[in-house]
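ingest -> validate -> predict -> emit
validate: passed (alphabet ok, no gaps, 342 aa)
predict: started
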Amino acid sequence: MLRQLTISLLLCSLLIACTEDQLPEGMVMMQMPVRLYMPVEQGVQTRAMGDPGTTETFSLPEYAYIYIVSAYAERPEVINQTGEIHLNPELWTKTVIQSGINPGDSVFYYNGYIDVVMPATRETGRIYAVLSRYSLGSDFAAKIPTTEEQVKNLTFDVTAEMIEQHGLRDLYSSPYNLLTDNAGNQSAGGHYYGTIRNYASAHPSLSLMLYHVAAKVDLMWNVDPSIQATTHLSDMQFVNLKVKDCYLFRPMENTSLGSDTYTAMPSGIINTGNQWYGRYSFYAIPYHTGSDIYPFTIKLWYNGSTRGAEPTKTVSVETVSVTGVDTFTPWVRGFLNIRNAE
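emit:
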């Protein structure tokens, strides 16, 4: 039985819930089925390159933020937003999207309804959605965009909770520039994929796949065999990672580091098993200065020294996007070859 989640959407940027007898003239409250998907254990059907495969474990999002852009004759843009929604964990379901006769991708979807205020005579509607394991904070929830362009330009700040608990791995949104044709296939000449089906009818509905906001950073390292007798890694840390003003719906359009940064890679990652050769991955907000190059700064400690002391060396690694697409956050890969101990 389909369970119901009732969400009172904000009307015309008012921070109050509307009942039907309080609605402005020409507006109605309707119950719209919404199914929000997030890809896990995916293959090629839903996998935006950069979404990891079957080897990772994800946590289900606990919060959602939804923005609906309505258009009708008198007003080309009306923005309704939900504020911060606490998701019911019992409404998540795992399923497989079939691809012809072959098994498809595993996805989780959140299945419910929203009570949405919309024009009685409406023409088109588009939805922008965010799913997150952790709250994006009261400052973000208080943002009230009044145009679709402002919705697309919404930014958030990475919280300490996200950094410490892998929260960036479990943050998803609907990229504004994902365009599809009427059959749902990606198409450069199509329409925004979050367009609400049958919006002008008595029964509008929405089914939407969301994608990672952060990029998966994958670093591989090796200490050259010629110096392994005297040199081994004992600690490593990524520094200067982006914190402030991170795009939600334009995740591939961050072009600067910003004023605030943080570090990643917990202590204890380097051990006797990977002190010469190893691999580590995590999620970070990508930013780039051109093409598909994503710069990262790494501090290295050698031969028993750890991050309590000055690093033996600080290096810059330019990771390269495996995909080179401009819609989905990428899987970026970097190689660190240590050829001397200085």
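The chain has two domains: 20-212, 215-338.
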